[in-house]
Amino acid sequence: MAEKKKNRNRNLSGKKIESEKDLAEAIERSYHNKVAIFKHSTSCFISKTVLRNFESEIKDAGTNADLYFLDLLAYRPISNKIAEDLDVTHQSPQLIVVENGKAVNNASHQNISITQIAQ
């Protein structure tokens, strides 16, 4: 099972959120630098397309935010905790921007863009 999870994540850049500890570290990091969490469904064509477009945008434009990725199929309980802790409705794909421990912006599907991080 771990090998399967590893293969599903091979194209994602940035830090992975795979545990409550990883999530706590990302939220703690948001007190020092903007954090963007991309929640991604590895079995969904739309999610894969949005992720590919977002990664291309990031590569071309860059960002000062710390990027985190969550494979929500492999780590659904963590996805639920993100929604609960940051008080955002769960969606997939979803980009959540966090500053000072709070969600300051979020978008889903084709609304996901580097502009959410810049706002």
Classify the fold: give the CATH topology. Answer: Glutaredoxin
Based on secondary structure, the structural category is alpha/beta
- Order of neighbouring strands in the sheet with most strands: 1-3-2-4-5
Number of helices: 5
Shape: globular
How would you describe the overall organization of this protein?
With 119 residues, this protein is of the alpha/beta class. The chain has one domain: Glutaredoxin, CATH 3.40.30.10. 41% of the residues lie in helices and 23% in strands. The protein has helices at residues 2-8, 20-29, 45-61, 76-86, 115-118; strands at 15-16, 35-40, 66-71, 94-99, 102-108. The chain has a 5-stranded mixed β-sheet with strand order 1-3-2-4-5, with helices on both faces. Strand 2, helix 3 (45-61) and strand 3 (66-71) form a beta-alpha-beta unit. The longest helix has 17 residues, at 45-61. 30% of the residues are buried. Mean pLDDT is 87; it is low at 1-12.
Secondary structure layout plus pairing:
Blueprint lengths: L1 H7 L6 E2 L3 H10 L5 E6 L4 H17 L4 E6 L4 H11 L7 E6 L2 E7 L6 H4 L1
Parallel strand pairs: 1-3, 2-3
Antiparallel strand pairs: 2-4, 4-5
